[in-house]
Write a sequence for this structure.
């Protein structure tokens, strides 16, 4: 085992360079600081445990080497396999006499999740002699990961505490949000609830304008090798943020952006949103998204906001005739009658540059309304059926318990493209169908009807960013909110051209922070008075 640890440490940073910095931090309370490599605390575990627990080690600090060298700590193990080409799996590796190549197997690397039983068993064996009593986790980023030492359970597992850095971050987060508690649940503290109500009661004599807390959640990366795990984490974040609604007098408004909004529209509502990753076709992912929406909306204090338009890019589809084509070798020059070589053939024509991919903005409000013509069942709460109530014009989603909500009104259709106007094939809004019993077949039929009517985003396009209409909706929500939490980009961040939605909303946030909205509102009247005085 130590050989594997030593080999993995060759590609990992060592913690030994931090020794001097740690000495400066703990100077005074600690008598000494000692670096301990894996070969010492694990290879000589009994002797090291006796040294640590002896009276001579009082107030001493032992810095253990990087624990990332243990797959059991991270929960993933790298597996390297030999893979033969598809055509040569039935044959033995022999040289190819045609082109001189060989069907030698290639190495394929993958990561396999380890079961918790193996991880906790490793922790029990590794610390059987040392037996630590307390584990203090003081890294916020590490605390968000499911590492074995601070997450697993085994008979001699230490008690876990958070450190001062995490506690300070949480206190700053609570203070920034203005939550009516300092630790624990405000719903269990009647004094905090009464104090909050008393503070709000004396705010003027006129009608009070509701000011919910706004949370914006974007991001993506669901199409990668760990895409499903990334999506699950986003859904967990969505559920976690929704719990803030119990501490908000005016509720919580959660705006979705990026690939997360695309996943919710596609998996939970069956809206056509162009080309999607493999996750969208899996029943497990659709179930996870639907159950997340139910968990977020079931208390009736959260309103979800989805984009009403997307900026998309055309997907280049390779020509079937060119797939798998191999460029032939150039012919050998022919020799004439007297051994002279004939003129060389003319050079091949230069490659033709593929046409630039088109960009287009699609309004999906009509597609959302069409998908909701049949009631969308999310599940059951307290024996009652819970349906999704949709405002397609504003992109708002709430919960309707008991009876299915009435179908939403079809938004006014967007102006047709110039090409569509010339062709005279602008899609007409389909008539609203009466609500029936909610079944998966009905939801699929609604999605097919929307696609047939030209609603939504065709499969030949991929979503890259939110549109101007969606950005304006976020600006309006920001103006009416008391504060905001933001996590994740609203579009694809790898290219600058798809950062327009994120940057536009960021500019609105900076304007809000600078207080320029109030100045502009009052500035117009002052300018008008100055113009009258000059006249």
């Amino acid at each position: 085992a130590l050989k594997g640890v030593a080999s993995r440490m060759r590609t990992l940073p060592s913690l030994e360079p931090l020794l001097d910095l740690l000495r400066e931090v703990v100077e005074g309370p600690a008598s000494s600081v000692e670096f301990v490599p894996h070969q010492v605390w694990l290879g000589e575990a009994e002797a090291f445990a006796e040294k640590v627990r002896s009276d001579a080690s009082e107030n001493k600090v032992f810095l253990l080497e990087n624990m990332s060298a243990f797959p059991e700590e991270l929960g993933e193990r790298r597996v390297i396999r030999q893979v033969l080409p598809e055509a040569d799996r039935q044959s033995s590796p022999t040289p190819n006499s045609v082109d001189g190549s060989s069907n030698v197997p290639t190495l394929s690397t993958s990561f396999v999740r380890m079961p918790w039983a193996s991880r906790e068993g490793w922790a029990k064996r590794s610390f059987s002699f040392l037996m630590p009593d307390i584990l203090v986790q003081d890294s916020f980023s590490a605390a968000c990961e499911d590492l074995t030492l601070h997450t697993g359970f085994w008979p001699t597992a230490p008690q876990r505490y958070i450190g001062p850095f995490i506690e300070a971050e949480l206190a700053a987060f609570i203070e920034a949000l203005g939550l009516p508690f300092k630790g624990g649940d405000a719903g269990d503290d009647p004094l905090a609830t009464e104090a909050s109500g008393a503070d709000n009661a004396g705010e003027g004599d006129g009608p009070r304008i509701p000011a919910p807390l706004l949370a914006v959640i974007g991001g993506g990366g669901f199409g990668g090798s760990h895409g499903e795990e990334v999506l699950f984490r986003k859904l967990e974040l969505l559920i976690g943020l929704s719990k803030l609604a119990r501490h908000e007098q005016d509720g919580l408004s959660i705006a979705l952006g990026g690939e997360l909004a695309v996943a919710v529209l596609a998996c939970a509502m069956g809206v056509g949103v162009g080309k999607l990753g493999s996750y969208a076709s899996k029943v497990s992912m659709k179930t996870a998204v639907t159950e997340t929406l139910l968990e977020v909306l079931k208390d009736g204090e959260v309103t979800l906001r989805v984009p009403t338009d997307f900026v998309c890019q055309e997907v280049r589809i390779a020509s079937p005739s060119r797939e798998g084509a191999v460029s032939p070798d150039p012919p050998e020059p022919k020799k004439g009658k007297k051994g002279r070589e004939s003129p060389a053939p003319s050079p091949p024509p230069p490659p033709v540059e593929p046409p630039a991919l088109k960009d287009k903005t699609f309004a999906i409000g009509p597609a959302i309304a069409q998908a909701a013509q049949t009631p969308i069942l999310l599940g059951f709460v307290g024996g009652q059926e819970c349906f999704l109530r949709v405002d397609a014009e504003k992109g708002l989603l709430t919960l309707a318990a008991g009876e299915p909500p009435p179908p939403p009104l079809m938004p006014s259709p967007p102006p047709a493209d110039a090409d569509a106007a010339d062709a005279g094939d602008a899609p007409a809004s389909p008539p609203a169908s009466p609500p029936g019993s909610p079944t998966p077949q009905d939801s699929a039929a609604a999605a097919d009807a929307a696609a047939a009517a030209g609603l939504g985003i065709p499969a030949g396009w991929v979503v890259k960013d939110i549109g101007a209409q969606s950005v304006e909706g976020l600006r309006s929500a920001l103006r009416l909110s008391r504060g905001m939490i933001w996590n994740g980009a609203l579009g694809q961040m790898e290219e600058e051209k798809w950062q327009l939605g994120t940057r536009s909303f960021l500019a609105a946030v900076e304007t809000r922070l600078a207080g320029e909205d109030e100045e502009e509102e009052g500035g117009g009247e002052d300018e008008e008075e100055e113009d009258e005085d000059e006249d």
Remarks:
- The two ends are 89 Å apart (CA to CA).
- Residues 516-534 form the longest helix (19 residues).
- The chain is about 35% helix and 15% strand.
- The CA atoms of residues 95 and 409 lie 68 Å apart.
